[in-house]
């Protein structure tokens, strides 16, 4: 009599899903932002391609989930720094805390730049809505902390401010992150105005925005 195959527990399913995501991120980072195929992810994870598809319908869904995971890490990093601060915080200091994670993890910005135009295009509607809801919750959680730091703000106002900070950060990164061959051409042509230091520019830009946005 053939033995029955042991059912995979929910905990094991979660571990397997996490392993797929961690492997995909390592491959993405190693390839400097190039999205690998499901076949490569499966091979490096030690799973069959069919098994990976049990957890994610497409590679775009894998990376949309990764994007959400990295956004959560960003928010957790900001929250951890703000929760241990006492006394008044200047807008420049707040801007540095808010942008520090992305300055050190620019691949998040590269992933975010294709999230709407590429990843969401080939992802199930249910997954997109669930991802958006989780991002909205992250924004609200972060906004609650912001309201404590800058009294007079409502949650609604703070959420709008954080959305605009997102837009500012991602837009600035796209402008200042040209491919290597373009950077060489800009330098040779002496038009390096398009290649300012991102880490300095993003803090200055967010601080300037906050000065005008805060009541």
Protein topology:
Blueprint: H1 10-30, H2 38-45, H3 49-55, H4 59-83, H5 91-104, H6 106-119, H7 125-149, H8 155-176, H9 180-188, H10 198-213
Describe the structure.
By secondary structure, the chain is mainly alpha-helical. The protein folds into two domains: 11-56, Orthogonal Bundle (Arc Repressor Mutant, subunit A); 58-213, Tetracycline Repressor, domain 2. Helix content is 75%, strand content 0%. It contains ten helices and no strands. It has helices at residues 10-30, 38-45, 49-55, 59-83, 91-104, 106-119, 125-149, 155-176, 180-188, 198-213. α5 runs antiparallel to α10 (198-213) and α7 crosses α8. The longest helix has 25 residues, at 59-83. It is globular, with a radius of gyration of 20 Å. The relative contact order is 0.10. Mean pLDDT is 86; it is low at 1-5.
């Amino acid at each position: 009599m053939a033995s029955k195959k042991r059912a995979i527990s929910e905990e094991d399913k979660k571990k397997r899903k996490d392993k797929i995501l961690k492997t995909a991120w390592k491959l993405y980072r190693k390839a400097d932002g190039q999205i690998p195929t499901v076949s490569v992810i499966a091979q490096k994870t030690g799973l069959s391609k069919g098994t990976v598809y049990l957890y994610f319908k497409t590679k775009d869904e894998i990376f949309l989930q990764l994007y959400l995971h990295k956004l959560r890490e960003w928010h957790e990093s900001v929250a951890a720094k703000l929760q241990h601060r006492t006394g008044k915080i200047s807008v420049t200091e707040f801007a540095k805390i808010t942008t520090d994670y992305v300055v050190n993890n620019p691949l998040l910005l590269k992933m975010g730049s294709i999230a709407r135009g590429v990843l969401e295009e080939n992802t199930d509607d249910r997954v997109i809505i669930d991802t958006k809801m989780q991002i909205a919750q992250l924004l609200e959680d972060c906004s609650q902390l912001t309201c404590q730091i800058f009294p007079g703000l409502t949650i609604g106002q703070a959420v709008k401010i954080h959305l605009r900070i997102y837009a500012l950060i991602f837009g600035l990164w796209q402008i200042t992150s040209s491919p290597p061959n373009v950077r060489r051409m800009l330098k040779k042509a002496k038009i390096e105005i398009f290649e300012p230091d991102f880490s300095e520019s993003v803090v200055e830009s967010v601080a300037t925005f906050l000065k005008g946005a805060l009541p």
